[in-house]
Each structure stands twice: as C-alpha cells, then as structure tokens.
Amino acid sequence: MLFPSRDKYERLIYTLPQRYSEIVSSSLHLYTTSRSTAIVRGSVRFRSGLELRVHEIVDFVAGCISDYSYTVFHGEERVRWYDPQPHPENPDLAETFPHHRREPPNIKHNRKLAPGISFTEPNLSTLIADCIALGDEPAEDDQEI
After folding, report:
1. Has residue 143 been placed in a domain?
2. How many domains does the chain divide into?
C-alpha cells in the first residue's frame, strides 16, 4: 500500500469522528512545514475516557512517516505509548523493529511489540483499534479478587 497523498491523509484525519462511533472528539490537525512535509498534532478522545495524543512528521514526497510519538492517557495517567526508538538489544521486539509500545507495569521499561505501526502506512486505524480495545478492558478496580 502506498502512503496516501496529502489530501487523502487530511481527509482521513478530519473524518475520524464520523468514521468511529467510539470517538467523542478529535483535535488532530495537519500543519504544512514545507512543500513535502507536514506535522500532524492533536488528540483523539474516546467514550471510554481514553485520550490518544498524536505527533507525526510526515514526508509526502518520500511517502512515509519520518517520526512519531503516540501516547494514550486516562485522565492524567499515561497508560501506553508508542515510539520508534530502536532497542536492538531486546530480541523480543525484533518482529516489529523498531516500532514498539510501552505499558504498565513499569511503563518506562515494559516494551511490547507494536503490530500495525509503521513508517510506510498510516497508523491511526491501528492506534484507534488499540484504544477501543484498551477502553473495553476492565479497570483494575473493577476486577474480581
């Protein structure tokens, strides 16, 4: 799949609330930084109370996301984040290298595979699906002992 054109990517970004009933609001915007590049920045809020904060640098001539940071919050608590910082010392992450996510417990060091996250395809559908699934999980307070 080719990375979408600037127009198609903007359409994807600006129609998320119409395409996903679980999205309450989105403040995502695409800001042009040069003839070929743009920054996507903002957040997507879900009915579950989760918020996905997005920061991408997109190169439309090269057809790729050149850098990103995606963070999921519940209130002020960071519950998950995705980044492409390579960790070649961790063979468990090789399958999606360099893409991975961090999550509790010990969120700074608990790295997991990030299937569906890429530099060459839009990541928003994967991230939204992850947030919807995460929002459907029972909170620790709600689990039976």
Report:
1. no
2. 1
Picking from 76, 73, 21, 69, the residue whose alpha carbon sits closest to that of residue 50 is 73
Matching residue, tokens 């997109």: 58
| Helix, strand, coil shares, percent, the chain, to 5 | 25, 35, 40
Determine the Cα–Cα distance for residues 80 and 101; give it in Å rounded to an integer.
7
Query: Which token pair is 21?
Result: 């009933």
Nearest 10 degrees: Cα torsion 43, 124, 107, 77: 20
pTM for this predicted structure:
0.90
Q: Domain limits at 27?
A: 6-137
**Residues 6 or more apart in contact with residue 142 via CB below 8 angstroms:** none
Q: Is the C-alpha dihedral spanning 123, 116, 103, 17 positive or negative?
A: positive
Q: What is the pLDDT of residues 71-129, one digit of tens each?
A: 999 999 999 999 999 888 888 888 999 999 999 998 888 999 999 999 999 999 999 99
